[in-house]
């Protein structure tokens, strides 16, 4: 069970016509039953584990359950990608990590779990954490205990073997103007990233759980993306991450359009999605729906079911306008929390059941989406970015993504019209 020192940490995020919030917390109080397992992913590669460092991690071969990225053929309609992701992923008394692993197996879905490094650091070793602009051992989401670390590592291990991604939500989750991540320099971000890696690579030594099995991946290679606390500090984080070999960031606010790169990283930010019954949109995250509905994690129980239905329907409407329109990937963020009686966890599960079973839909991790994007013709992606939210190509996909004209051998190449690379605001 996670240490009881955790508390809600929130921060402001601008949305269309509404002030939304993106926050993360530690443990909650409402227990959830583990979902029934479904179809299994591919078995782990048969490679003898090669321990790394103190044996907290190990190289076990290529990760199973991964999609093979394929370049779009001329005139081919893009698949509809959906990414479900979790901030501060850890297993506590709610058992939501294990529950959604089971949901993933049931619907053949892979997800991204953003681990908070302090969830693998016991409270008695808190002083090992040296947060930027704060005293040693300070964390706004607390630390963990041996049982919580054991449970979280068990879920991380199995999640990776099932094809899911383990990213980072960093460590102390500091928000706001007083030393929050939005005030950190590039070098301070590098320190935070280094420490997040260290807590994963040394959880056995730090916790004393020497007899446990290692995490089955090299975290220096596994870690390729992140979401910042409260969606703050993105500018300097992206600069630091680009120098450290990260491949994507999901800390900003976007419309439902095709992504582009920022400082060499794919910008896979959260998106503005419909808010059923309202004249504005909100961010594609459980926390933002909650803030706009009840303004508190314990709102009136009479409205719990309605609020969950509202979030589910908003996400499904967002899916539909991409699926039937520009086919831009849909990015969704969540927390393992029982806010408002767990209604948002129900909403997410029902959204997964509604959209991930449809034809041409791929519910994947951020890393898998980045793999697919990297495999595409940059000029094709540039053309996809000319489509607005929910905009279907005029004349259909076959015409819109038709093959580029071939320049005859007896005609100078310079006479061919170039394809203009248009950005998302173009």
From TrEMBL:
This is Polysaccharide deacetylase. GO terms for biological process: carbohydrate metabolic process. Residues 54-78 are annotated as: Disordered. It comes from the Bacteria. It comes from Streptomyces jumonjinensis. The lineage of its organism: Bacteria, Bacillati, Actinomycetota, Actinomycetes, Kitasatosporales.
């Amino acid at each position: 069970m996670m240490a009881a020192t955790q508390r809600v940490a929130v921060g402001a995020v601008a949305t269309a016509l509404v002030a939304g919030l993106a926050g993360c917390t530690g443990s909650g109080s409402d227990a959830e039953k583990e979902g029934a397992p479904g179809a299994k992913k591919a078995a782990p590669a048969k490679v003898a584990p090669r321990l790394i460092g103190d044996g907290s991690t190990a190289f076990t071969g290529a990760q199973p359950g991964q999609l093979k990225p394929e370049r779009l053929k001329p005139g081919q309609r893009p698949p509809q990608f959906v990414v479900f992701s979790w901030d501060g992923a850890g297993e506590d008394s709610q058992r939501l990590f294990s529950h959604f692993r089971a949901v993933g197996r049931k619907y053949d879905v892979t997800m991204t779990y953003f681990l908070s490094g302090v969830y693998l650091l016991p409270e008695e070793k808190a002083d090992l954490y040296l947060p930027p602009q704060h005293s040693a051992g300070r964390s706004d989401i607390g630390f963990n205990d041996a049982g919580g670390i054991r449970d979280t590592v068990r879920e991380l291990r199995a999640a990776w073997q099932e094809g899911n991604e383990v990213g980072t939500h960093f460590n102390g989750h500091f928000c706001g103007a007083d030393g929050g991540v939005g005030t950190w320099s590039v070098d301070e971000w590098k320190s935070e990233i280094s420490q997040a890696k260290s807590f994963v690579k040394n959880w056995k030594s730090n916790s004393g759980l020497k007899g446990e099995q290692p995490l089955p991946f090299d975290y220096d290679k596994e870690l390729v993306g992140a979401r910042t606390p409260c969606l703050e500090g993105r500018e300097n984080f992206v600069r630091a991450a680009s120098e450290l070999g990260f491949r994507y960031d999901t800390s900003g606010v976007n419309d439902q359009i095709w992504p582009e790169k920022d400082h060499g990283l794919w910008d896979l930010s959260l998106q503005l999605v419909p808010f059923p019954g309202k004249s504005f949109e909100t961010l594609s995250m459980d926390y933002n729906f909650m803030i706009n509905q009840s303004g508190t994690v314990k709102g009136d129980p009479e409205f719990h079911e309605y609020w969950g239905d509202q979030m589910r329907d908003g996400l499904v409407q967002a899916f539909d306008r991409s699926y039937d329109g520009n086919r831009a990937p849909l990015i969704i963020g969540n927390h393992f929390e029982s806010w408002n009686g767990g209604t948002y966890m129900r909403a997410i599960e029902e959204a997964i059941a509604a959209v991930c079973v449809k034809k041409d839909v791929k519910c994947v991790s951020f890393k898998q989406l980045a793999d697919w994007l990297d495999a595409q013709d940059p000029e094709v992606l540039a053309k996809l970015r000319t489509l607005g939210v929910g905009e279907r190509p005029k004349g259909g996909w076959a015409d819109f993504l038709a093959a580029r004209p071939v320049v005859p051998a007896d005609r100078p190449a310079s006479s061919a019209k170039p394809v203009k690379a248009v950005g998302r605001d173009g």
